[in-house]
Amino acid sequence: MAKVAVIIDDMFEDSEYTQPAEAFNKGGHQLVHIGLKEGAEVKGKKEGTSVKIEKSVSEANPRDYDALLIPGGYSPDHLRVDKDAVNFAKKFMEDNKPVFSICHGAQLLITAKALEGRKATGWKSIIQDIKYAGAEYLDKEVVEDGNLVTSRHPGDLPAFIEACLKKL
Amino acid sequence: MAKVAVIIDDMFEDSEYTQPAEAFNKGGHQLVHIGLKEGAEVKGKKEGTSVKIEKSVSEANPRDYDALLIPGGYSPDHLRVDKDAVNFAKKFMEDNKPVFSICHGAQLLITAKALEGRKATGWKSIIQDIKYAGAEYLDKEVVEDGNLVTSRHPGDLPAFIEACLKKL
Description:
Two copies of one chain form a homodimer.
Chain A: E1 3-7, H1 14-26, E2 30-35, E3 41-43, E4 50-52, E5 55-56, E6 67-70, H2 75-79, H3 83-94, E7 99-102, H4 106-111, E8 119-120, H5 127-132, E9 136-137, E10 143-145, E11 148-151, H6 157-167
Parallel strand pairs in A: 1-2, 1-6, 2-5, 6-7, 7-11, 8-9
Antiparallel strand pairs in A: 3-4, 10-11
């Protein structure tokens, strides 16, 4: 069973957290919610889903986790200004551990310069960002490239979750 | 006196619209509010400032305007998925007309591939996007490069507005 770090902040896309989280829990995997401030409660953008941050990213060690989930919404825009959050995500990519990114999630990987030479997808507003970041952008419900699993939007969640579970 | 197109959608950063708008009006310039749907009311992210869209971007002709203002917040993330909005902004850059972009505004210019070879600044979350887009990123309150005036955040508004007014 895997220990999955969820890196998350306010205005995350609710379903892009709740649906993978439910599926990972059902599969017997453990989720640890990591954010900018331990103890803070962060909220979803549309439904106001509340998530308690269990560990500050400045204190979290990537070695303690088997995989990383990056839900979308405007959460990645907040996280990518934090050097610790960027380095945290970067380490999973460098260590070739499973990284699951949906929607705007790829923004965090762009700031980490972790998409160069990779195949990826993401929300349509960031297509040009993904291309400029040196990735091959694919308009598919799920793109699997080694350790990296990416999807475009909530409509892709069934395919995204299935691909993620296979990596855990 | 100049006719300034303001391209704007929901969740714009209130002050990045209200303060330039007030200064442009005071200077005798005309503002036309352009968005995704004529007649729609779009709202600011923090203060709920309401802006009525006077013209749909699909109907708007860049030739009718002397300059373009792109306020930040999450408005540019919405606008950059719309091909007409992207082409509208692109045309001002191609025609060398004044373009004023603050905060996340540069995202629209990135999708328009209009930052290649330019000097620019923007909100810290998009620094790597700006660099990958082929621009030289400068951490300054205002960056002037030919027709293009860019700033980082609301704290830069006095310098931004001063630089914009000089171009009108």
